[in-house]
Design goal:
The protein is mostly beta strands and about 190 residues long. It is about 0% helix and about 55% strand. The chain is built from no helices and 15 strands. The strands form four sheets. It has a four-stranded antiparallel sheet with strand order 1-2-3-4, with no helix packed on it. It has a four-stranded antiparallel sheet with strand order 5-6-7-8, with no helix packed on it. A four-stranded antiparallel sheet has the order 9-10-11-12, with no helix packed on it.
């Protein structure tokens, strides 16, 4: 297939996080953290590559000089869920189909939450992140309903070895699957929910 033209979504002074994107069946949603003004921003892009809306403000982000500022997004057919890290905190926001915030909440506070990923089963969202107690890393996850409310009273944690690295999540129509790499053992692991 031929590549589409290079479309400029936004002009952003200073540094940003890596973007995250998802397709909702009609258009693309792109989100990023603007580290220059410490905000979460979003854009809507049509299927043919036209910018429908650019640089929408989603939330403010507290400054932390040690933060990795990572972001993820998923669409459940009605709403978007955006998850991001800032400092020692993991946040999420539920957005409507036009990327307007419906809720914004702190999900977890830990020593080093990092690398949020999110997927959906079409109703609920699964938000997964790496966290650390300062010595060991582990996978933590939270089921979030379609209204943006965590389903359980606390995050579920799965202990891992000392050097857990990147992870990914997927839904196969019946179960959620989390996979991750452990650099200390040079292995990949899988957990199904």
């Amino acid at each position: 297939a031929d590549a589409l033209d290079d479309v400029q979504i936004a002009v952003i002074p200073g540094y940003t996080s890596a973007p995250a994107a998802v397709f909702n069946g009609q258009e693309y949603a792109v989100v990023w953290i603007n580290i220059h003004d410490l905000t979460i921003r979003a854009a809507r892009i049509s299927r043919d590559g036209a910018v429908v809306e650019r640089n929408r403000l989603i939330a403010s982000v507290p400054y932390n000089p040690y933060s990795t500022y990572r972001i993820a997004i998923a669409w459940n057919g009605n709403r978007y869920l955006v998850g991001w890290t800032s400092g020692h905190t993991l946040h999420c926001a539920l957005l409507d189909e036009e990327l307007r915030p419906l809720s914004d909440r702190t999900i977890a506070t830990s020593t080093f939450p990092a690398n949020p990923t999110v997927t959906t089963n079409g109703t609920e969202f699964l938000l997964v992140w790496r966290e650390s107690d300062g010595r060991k890393y582990g996978i933590a996850y939270w089921m979030i309903d379609g209204a943006g409310t965590p389903r359980d009273t606390g995050a579920k944690r799965h202990a891992a070895n000392s050097n857990l690295d990147q992870h990914a999540v997927a839904f196969d129509g019946e179960q959620f699957t989390i996979v991750w790499r452990d650099d200390s053992e040079h292995t990949f692991h899988l957990m199904r929910l």
